[in-house]
Each structure stands twice: as C-alpha cells, then as structure tokens.
TrEMBL record, chain A:
The gene is Lsm1. Keywords: Cytoplasm, mRNA processing, mRNA splicing, Phosphoprotein, Ribonucleoprotein, RNA-binding. Belongs to the snRNP Sm proteins family. Its main location: cytoplasm. This is U6 snRNA-associated Sm-like protein LSm1. Gene3D superfamilies: 2.30.30.100. GO terms for biological process: deadenylation-dependent decapping of nuclear-transcribed mRNA; mRNA processing; RNA splicing. CDD domains: LSm1. It comes from Calyptomena viridis (Lesser green broadbill).
UniProtKB/TrEMBL annotation, chain B:
GO terms for cellular component: nuclear speck; P-body; PML body. It is found in: Cytoplasm, P-body; Nucleus speckle; Nucleus, PML body. Residues 558-798 form the mRNA decay factor PAT1 domain. This is Protein PAT1 homolog 1. Residues 53-63, 153-165, 469-484 have a biased composition (Basic and acidic residues). The gene is Patl1. Residues 383-397 have a biased composition (Pro residues). It comes from Calyptomena viridis. GO terms for biological process: deadenylation-dependent decapping of nuclear-transcribed mRNA; P-body assembly. InterPro entries: Pat1-like, PAT1_dom. The keyword Cytoplasm applies. The lineage of its organism: Eukaryota, Metazoa, Chordata, Craniata, Vertebrata. Pfam families: PAT1 (PF09770). Its main location: cytoplasm.
C-alpha cells in the first residue's frame, strides 16, 4: 500500500478500518497503531462473518494482529457503510449459517475426492494455512 | 505472617528465603520510611560497605540491595539476607509483588501507604501472578497511577527513594553500582527537589550540558503509588540494547522516551497528570535503556526548572542531524502550555535549526490520557488546556509529570518549514497544524484535508464566538469525547513508519522493481490525458506519490582475496559476503550418454534456446519505452540494437548455422513442439520482416500434421492464428499459393489414395482455420488484383479445384470446427464449382 493507513490525527474523527486476515476472518475496528510490519492494533473490534447475503458481528474488543497474517487493510467510508445490500443478523444465526455452509462445503469436497479416487486420481492436500 | 498464607506456588524457595529475612526487609523498610532513613547517596554507602568488606567482615556484601546503614552491618541475618539476595536476581527481588509481600508481612508503620494498600494478601495475590509471569519491571504494569493519590508527607522517605536507582532488567555488569530500587509501595515524593537537583547534577553531570546525540535517553523508574490493583499492560518494557534499525539510533520509542519538553512546563491539573505521566513513562520505558536516575516524581516548579538549567533541547530526529544544537534551548512552544519561566528562553528556539515540537503532540499526549483499558476510572474531567495563569500549581498528589523533565527532549521531527509559529501563552494554537503529509498518497492527502476542513467548519459553527482558545478547547474536548484514543500513535511514530515504507520503495530501476505499479499509473495517466483532451475541462490533480529515487550505483563487489593464502577470509558479513563455494562447470563427455540422455539434452538445448530468445524478445518489446525515455542522440543506436536483436531471434528460431543452408526445419520444429516455443513464435512474428515471417509460416504449414500431433495435449496452436493472419495480409499470391500447397499437400501423386496431410489439417481446428485464412487471402488477392500473372493464376485455379474436390469428398463429421470462417470463402468456391456442389459445401462449412 502506498498510502499511509495509520490512525488519524486528532482533528479528525476516528475512522473504521476493515482488515482481512489470511485465515479468512474479517475484522472491523478503529486502527490505533500500525508499524512497518503491518502489525495492527484494533480497538473496539468486531469480527464480521459473512454468509451469503447475511452477516453477523461479534464484538471482540482489542485486537493485536501480527503483520504477516494481514491480507489487506482498508478504511471504511462511514457514509457508504450503511449503504449495503447485505442484511445484518444476530450472532447465533450467522454462526449457524456458517456452520451449515461449512458442512455443505465439506460434503461436496468429500464427494469430489471420492470421485477422483475412483478414477485413480488424487488431489494433494492443500496447505491448511492458505486455505483461502 | 501473610506470606505463609499466600497460596503461591512459584518461587517458593525464594519466598521462604525472604520469609526468613523478614526482619532484614523490615529493616530496609525502616531505613526507607522510618527513623533509619539517612540522607545518603549510594556511592558513599558503597564505599563504606566496601571498606567494611575489606576489613574482613565476612558476611557483608557491598552491593546488597538491602539497607546500608551501619547498624545493620554485622548482623548475621543481614549477611544471610545479602547472600540470599544475591542468589535471587535483582529484578526478582525488586519484583513488586515480592517486595510488597515482604512489606506487608511485618510492616505496621502508621501512615505507610503501602501497608494500607497491600495489607491484604488478596491484593497481593492478584497482582503477583501477572507480574511474575511477565517479569516486567514493576513500573510499567503497576504504575498505572490513578489520579487521587493520598497525600504523602513523608519527608524522611524522600531522599532514599529519590536516591533509589531504577531496577535493571538486564543483568548487571560486574562492578556496576548497586541497584537499589525503591519498593513499589513507596509513596511518591512530594517535597521540593532542591537536594534532588544536587544529586542530579552531582551524579549525572553529563545530563547538564550538551548531550551527545548518541546517548540513549534514560528513563527513571519511578515508584508510584499503585492504587489500582488491576495490572495493565501498557507496553512491554523491553530494553533496547541493540542499535535502532535503519542506522538510526533513536527509534520512535526512544523519542517518546524523551520527555516531551512541552510537558516540562505543564501545570497540568491533578486530574490529568498522573495518567499522562504514567503512560508516558510506559512509553519511555518502552525503548530506553534504563540508567540509574533518581526518583523524579515531583511536581514541577518553575524554580526547579531554572535551577536545573536544563529544560530540554531540540534535537533533530533525522540521522542527518544528530548533533544537539544547544541544550540550552528552551522548550519548544507548546501553545498555551508553557510556563512563563520557560518562555523567556523561547527566543532561542527561533534561531534553532532544529524542528520544534509539534503542538499536536501535546494534544496527542492529552489525548492519550484516557486509559486504554476499560478498567480504569475516567479522570478526564477538566479541560486539558489550562491557562498559564494556573501556574504555579500547588504541589498536589497528582502531579507526577516531572520525572522526565530534566532529560533532554527530542522534539518532533518536523521540517523547518512546518514548524508552527511561536505563540504567546494564553493563545493556544488553533488546530491548523498540518502534519507532514508528503508521504501520503495524494488522494489520501486530499481526503484527509477535506475532512479536516469539514471538521474545522463543524467546530467553528459549534463553538461560535468562543474565541480561539475556547473553540480550540471545546473542539478538543469534543474530540476527546468523540474518540479519546484517536492519537495513540504520535505523529512522529507515524512518520517513522512512513519513512520505513518509503525507504522500501527506493529503487534504482522502478520499471524493474515495480513493473505493475508503473504500468498501472501510466495507463491511468493516459486515460486522464485522453479524457482531458476530450472534455477540455480543468486539469485535474494528477500528482503521483513521489517515491524516493536512488541513483543507480554500479557495485561489483569482489570479496577480498589474498594471493597464495590457504583458505578464505573468515570475516564476512551481510555487506561483504565471501564466496563459499567455488563452483566449476564441467561439460559432460558424449561417449557415455545413452540415447535417452541425448534426447533429453537436445530438449534441454531447445529449452535454453527458447529462454534466450525470450529475453531477446522482452528486450525488443521494451525498446519502445526506452525509445521514448531516451535522448535524441541515443535513438539510432537503440534502433540498431533492436534490429540486431530481432535478427538474433530469428536465427535462434530457425537454427543458426552461419555457413549452412537452412534446409532443415528441425530446429524450428523442436521449438514448436514446446508450448512455450509456440507462444514465443506468436510473439516474435510481428517483429519479423515479411520474408522471414513467411518463411516461418511455410515451415509451419509444411509440418503441420506433425505439429498437430504434438499439440494434441496443449492446444496452443490457435494462438498462432492471429499473428499468422497478420502475416498473410502482406503476402503476395505466389506465396499464398505455395502455402496452400503446403497445407493441403496437393497436388498429390495419383498413387496416393488418401491425403493424410490434408485430412489431418482439416480435422484440426487450427489447421482448418489456417486453411480458411489462406484461402480467404487468396480469394481476396484474386478478386482485388486483376493483374496477376497467368501462371500463378493457373496454379491457383488448379489448386482450388483440387481443394474443393477434397473438401467435397470429406464427410462433414470429419471437419473440425474452425475458429472463424471467412466470409469470402463461398465466393471463392463459387468460381470453381457449380451451384449444387456449392450448396453442399455451404452446408459443410
């Protein structure tokens, strides 16, 4: 990134930032500190889980993220934030949806592997760290 | 004993040992707080003890952390204490939990603050765990001093605790002065600091005058009143023993460590200062090497400042200006926050070539005062900008600022141009300070300023005619209300990280290092330019982020080698590596190789050829850009180079053999068998001269079935269609005719019943498409140019007749699906066949 993403000077209201981590998590919070490795300190962080058109927020508090796990970091335009087609649901609901989705994915994956095995092919297991 | 009650698992031995020494620690306590307190400094004490030791007192160690008074000496239990304390590492013993535990155990002195707080083992327990786990100096965690400190009126304790040296988390060097930390429970000193001054000047003369820029900033480890039992992590107080990165001795941590001189004169209200101090201290501890400094928890008095004569100095952060200009410079302006005494010296600052402190820093500090963790009471009641008329503020329990004041300050590394102008106290600077944003991307900067403007307008409208100060304060307050943590990162820290990022962008050849970014921006600029031409509107801001350009320096490092020496130099580092392995290339002999190996080698040779040609191709493709960037005089040379490279490429492709006739397509075929080779040819074709290109086309057509067979898996041949069609466009009829001949393998001898060549061609997508293209071209030529020679015409006609016949013969199913069917094919065929057959053909195609 070529722009300075750091926390804003005092004259401006704090801006929310969105961080995407390598394990696929999405964190939204106020970026309080950053360093040259992209280690981040997020304040009043919320983990947002997206499933389809729905999303749910889990408040997490303060996050310190090690830079190597950050995929991208961006500022959230507060005006545009409310302007989304996505629907917010409760935490329980979104977790349930996520579980269902994961299950479906796993089953389809299993079927695929089975089919390949029958044909004598095998896909090497992907590195678990870089699943996404 | 409360110690025994404590259900502590760790360090049981130590604890038991300490338990035995209760009396000694009590003694120490007594020394500190009670009658035994003596106005000593450790040097004298040390000497005394050393003498005693020399005299042969067996058990007395000179540098024990325990009390130093004479009456203590000779006590066998003390001796034991000494020995035991030596066993335990300093930090452990000074661990607040332990100290407290020890304190709590027997201490019953009235009014001792620690006893009132640490009596309960519960408290101790709560604290001990995290403390020991972290092994951090007590200060950082427990020093989260909360505002209302009970008043301390302990004159006696003042001095020893002042004298107390901060704990060392690094192992003490042999022979270093003893480290005697004041236990945590020691209440902060309240009295004035005249003798403190003396001590300072006596012990640390170097702090007075000009300080060497290379000297690390020291931080006192104060002991403050711990009111809040909940430990809080502020920052890991790791001692920085290694030089700061990027060759800079000072890191932002260190910068923060230096007390912001702006704070020196700050008569902060009680409610504000403690946290500030604390946080600052935590920051200070974050990076500085801890050096022994006396306790500095005292309210700052003007008098003291002047006594010290050392308010701080402006020091540039940048490595280019490491020297301290003048330590006598007054504290840079902090609008509205300077005490009049300091103001007298402000003028010195103007002449200083060094940047001043960012007033926003102060605000930053102020902003920082809000506790980050939720567990702390908010004490931010009063507005943070008290008018200077509040000076001098009464020595209250809360003012703990000044532990930092006599350490030289590092001012914010603002460039001179951006230094805020001096203002008189009472007129705080409006929030117009624009941070150094040269490193921001222009779009970002624009947005930032936009928002700043918005906010400013907002605030102005809100505060009306409150005046600058009022407006400033209330907007500030509003900011605090809105977002108290907004300035956890100081501007200088942000700048520092920015700087690092910019350094990473340094490049000698941006097109090499950052190709995609450069191209992307070129595209954007082209678009913008195009738009501008169309719209004729105002020229938009098209500023690029200025990345630092580094001159290209040719370094060919040759490691030092001595003639005739055995082995290599042992000294090697990152900057002067030495050759580890002497690799020698040996070519293999041809005799032993098996056929397989030969085949493999041949393939490898082909691959190598492809790679070489590819680099040539990339260079040639790059010439356009270089041409634009180069000077007029250089251009012919560039063109020449380019031509040469193109020739080389062609030679590579066809199989360079200077003396030989290029009869064999073998080399070319080898290349064409490889997927990358085909792609390479497709890319090279536009650069070749028409004859050369036609030559390639012929070769391809000639060997098309072979190629088709080889391409079955890759299916890359269609990528050649486009360049081939371009080539075709320039070909005369004769060539086209021969092409068709090659493609269709017509005319055939009558004996051959089938035409596998043609069949193969027709059955392949690429082949068929190519055939169509060629036919279409031929038709084009025929229809357009009426002056073709008769012979050629005849040839063509014959060919076409045969071709048509073949096409008719082949069943529809055998025909491949071509990429595209040129429109003039029908008209082509219409010349040679009658309507019936034409219809048949039409349906086939």
């Amino acid at each position: 990134a070529r722009a300075w993403p750091g926390p804003t000077p005092l004259s401006l209201p704090a801006e929310k930032h969105l961080v995407l981590l390598r394990d696929g998590r999405t964190l939204i919070g106020f970026l309080r500190s950053i360093d040259q490795f992209a280690n981040l300190v997020l304040h009043q962080t919320v983990e947002r889980i997206h499933v389809g058109k729905k999303y749910g927020d889990i408040p997490r508090g303060i996050f310190v993220v090690r830079g190597e796990n950050v995929v991208l970091l961006g500022e959230i335009d507060l005006e545009k934030e409310s302007d989304t087609p996505l629907q917010q649901v409760s935490i329980e609901e979104i977790l349930e949806e996520q579980r269902v989705e994961l299950q479906a994915k796993q089953e389809s994956e299993k079927l695929k592997v089975q089919a390949l095995k029958e044909r004598g092919l095998s896909v090497p297991r992907a590195d678990t760290l870089d699943e996404y | 004993q409360s110690l025994e009650d404590c259900p502590l698992d760790e360090d049981e031995d130590a604890f038991q040992a300490l338990g035995e020494e209760d009396e000694d620690i009590d003694q120490f306590n007594d020394d500190t707080f009670g009658a035994g307190a003596v106005d000593d400094d450790w040097q004298e004490a040390h000497e005394r003890l050393a003498e005693l030791e020399d005299k042969g007192v067996p058990s007395r160690d000179a540098d024990g952390p325990v009390g130093n008074d004479g009456d203590v000496l000779g006590d066998p239990e003390d001796a034991l204490a000494e020995r035991l304390t030596r066993l335990v590492i300093d930090s452990d013993l000074e661990d607040p939990a332990i100290m407290q535990a020890v304190h709590t155990s027997g201490h019953t002195q009235p009014g001792a603050l620690n006893s009132s707080i640490w009596d309960s083992s519960a408290v101790l327990r709560r604290i001990r765990g995290p403390l020991l786990a972290q092994e951090m100096p007590s200060v950082s965690v427990l020093d989260y001093a909360l505002p209302q400190q009970p008043p301390q009126a302990r004159e006696e304790e003042r001095d020893p605790s002042e004298r107390a040296l901060p704990r060392r988390s690094s192992s003490p060097v042999i022979g270093s002065p003893p480290v005697r930390a004041v236990p945590i429970g020691t209440p902060p000193k309240q009295a004035a600091i005249p003798n403190f001054n003396q001590q300072v000047s006596a012990r640390f003369p170097w702090l007075r005058g000009v300080q060497d820029a290379s000297r690390e900033v020291t931080v006192p480890l104060p002991s403050s009143q711990i009111l809040c039992p909940k430990p809080v992590h502020i920052r890991a107080t790791m001692q920085q023993r290694y030089p700061a990165p990027y060759g800079e001795r000072m890191s932002p941590n260190q910068l923060c460590n230096v007390p912001n001189s702006s704070l020196l004169g700050h008569p902060f209200p009680h409610s504000v200062s403690p946290v500030l101090t604390h946080l600052q201290r935590a920051q200070l501890l974050g990076g500085a090497q801890v050096k022994p400094l006396p306790m500095l928890f005292q309210p700052l008095h003007r008098q003291d400042l002047q006594d010290l004569g050392l308010h701080g100095s402006s020091r540039s952060f940048s490595p280019s200006n490491p020297t301290l200009a003048d330590s006598r410079h007054s504290i840079p302006t902090q609008a509205g926050r300077m005490s009049p005494s300091q103001f007298a010296r402000v003028s010195g600052l103007v002449g200083s070539p060094l940047p001043s402190v960012n007033p926003k820093l102060l605000q930053g500090r102020v902003g920082q005062m809000m506790p980050p963790a939720g567990g702390f009471r908010a004490f931010f009641g009063a507005p943070p900008a008290p008018p200077p008329s509040q000076l001098p503020h009464p020595p209250g329990p809360g003012s703990h600022l000044q532990n930092l004041r006599w350490v030289p300050s590092l001012s914010h590394p603002l460039p001179r141009s951006q230094r805020p102008p001096l203002t008189l106290p009472g007129f705080p600077r409006p929030q117009m300070f624009r941070p150094d944003t040269t490193h921001l991307h222009p779009q970002h900067r624009r947005l930032l300023h936009q928002r700043q403007q918005q906010n400013r307008n907002q605030h102005r409208s809100l505060n009306g005619s409150g005046g600058d100060r009022g407006g400033h304060r209330s907007s500030h307050q509003e900011q605090i209300r809105k977002d108290p943590y907004a300035n956890l990162m100081l501007q200088r820290e942000k700048d520092w990280v920015s700087k690092i990022q910019m350094m990473q962008l340094q490049s000698t050849d941006p097109y090499l290092d950052d190709y995609y970014y450069q191209n992307y921006f070129q595209k954007l600029e082209k678009l913008a330019a195009a738009e501008e031409v169309h719209g004729d509107g105002p020229k938009k801001e098209r500023t690029k982020l200025i990345t630092p350009q580094v001159a290209k320096l040719e370094h060919t490092y040759k490691p030092v080698q001595f003639e005739g020496s055995l082995g290599k130099l042992t000294v090697s580092s990152v900057n002067n590596p030495r050759k580890m392995i002497d690799a020698v290339v040996t070519s293999r002999s041809e005799d032993d190789e098996t056929k397989e190996k030969q085949v493999r080698d041949k393939r490898r040779q082909t691959l190598v050829t492809i790679e070489k040609t590819y680099s040539l191709l990339l260079d040639v493709e790059d010439y356009e850009r270089r041409y634009l960037l180069s000077l007029e005089g250089e251009r012919p040379a560039l063109m020449g180079e380019r031509k040469q490279k193109i020739c080389d490429m062609y030679d590579n492709l066809r199989g360079k053999a200077p003396g030989q006739d290029r009869l064999s397509d073998d080399h070319f075929m080898q290349i064409m068998c490889i997927r990358k080779g085909k792609r390479l040819v497709a890319r090279i074709l536009p650069f070749l001269a028409p004859e050369q290109a036609a030559d390639m086309l012929m070769a391809t057509a000639r060997n098309l079935p072979f190629l088709i067979k080889k391409d079955a898996q890759d299916e890359v041949l269609p990528c050649l269609l486009r360049p081939f069609s371009h080539v075709l466009y320039h070909l005369p009829l004769g060539t086209v005719t021969s092409l068709v001949q090659q493609l269709t393998n017509l005319p055939q001898s009558a004996a051959a019943p089938t035409n596998p060549h043609l069949t193969a061609v027709l059955q392949n997508k690429f082949g068929l498409s190519l055939l169509y293209l060629v036919l279409s071209r031929g038709e084009e030529l025929q229809s357009s140019d009426t002056n073709t020679e008769l012979i050629q015409d005849n040839q063509w006609t014959e060919l076409m007749l045969m071709a048509t016949r073949e096409l008719l013969r082949i069943p529809q199913g055998a025909l491949a699906k071509p990429v595209s069917i040129p429109s003039n094919l029908i008209s082509l065929f219409s010349r040679y066949v009658d309507q019936q057959k034409l219809n048949l053909l039409e349906t086939k195609l």
